[in-house]
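INFO  loader      accepted 1 record
INFO  loader      residues=369
INFO  predictor   begin
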Amino acid sequence: MTTALACAIAVLACTGTALAAQPTTKPAASRHETLVIAGAGDGHGVGMSQDGALGLAEHGYSYQGILAHYYTGTTLGTVAPKQTVRVLLDNGKILTMGLERYVRGVVGAEVSPSWPLAALEAQAVASRTYVLTSHAGGARFNVYSDTRSQVYLGKAAETPETDAAVAATKGQIVTYNGQPAITYFFAGSGGLTENVASAFPGAEPEPWLRGVTDPYESGPLRRWTITITMAAAERRLRGLVRGRFNGIEVLKRGWSPRIVAATVLGSEGPTEVSGPELEARLGLYSTWAYFSIDGPHGTRAEPDLSHYKAPRGSEPVDLAPTAGVQSASPPSESAPSTGPSSSPSTNAEASASNGATAASPGVGGAVSG
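INFO  predictor   done
INFO  writer      dumping tokens
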């Protein structure tokens, strides 16, 4: 038994799912076939969905209600407004500034100033909390000025609307049991967010970072489909493919359909891979993905041993091999890409600084937005 197969069995044993002693047997993939990926959402899926927050605001939610929805069991607290933060700029310089000035330079860079005030206020509180709980540079600086943390554009991002949202929430942060609670956010959920321990390999569970339904999220990447040639997929998965690339088998999904673990199927055996690494290698918009192979004789779904069941109260999860309603441009074959995002940031470095591995930009905050 190979080490990779033993790992796959161990993963499935934790979920009560039995795996046969031999890897899935499937015909060798033809060079004329393509890998079809039908997915949902934009970003890592943890915490606040920015497109979902927009939808909630449009349906009458206050910023307090929006934050309470995405950060389970939290309340709002306050901090001294005279606190300072340190931001590492693209030129390598560290800029020190007041907390509120920093937040004014973030909100308009993360979401559209045309959004309802409640959505802008929710972003202001989330961004303020995030910078206070981030230690991207240890003692040197708090955050990066780009998508490794959250985007900071200074005065270029300030508008009357976003400045009003920052002023209305001055000093307010998200707390859990009286302590600041790290506030990951991302662009679009696809209808469900995710538990932090399922989204970030190595992350510990956090009671306020649990998957929730996202009923009003309707972002541009709520549903998407990407098609990649088998040869291009093999190149992107170089180092994981043993022999010739034959497809992808899903082993485990999270609270949402986001992939936690899968195996890359090769002619010489399987290799286990995490959902975030698979997303980064293939240039997907999220780890919420279903795989099929399309060829001269039709389309066949790839093996899925996760036996995923959608949470009670959520809309049915139906992503058949060709169910994606938005067709995304195939990523460049020259290098892996995380694809475009509906908003600029994603708190990526945050996951790394909290014991998780940021496999692609936006794993912490918003690659999403």
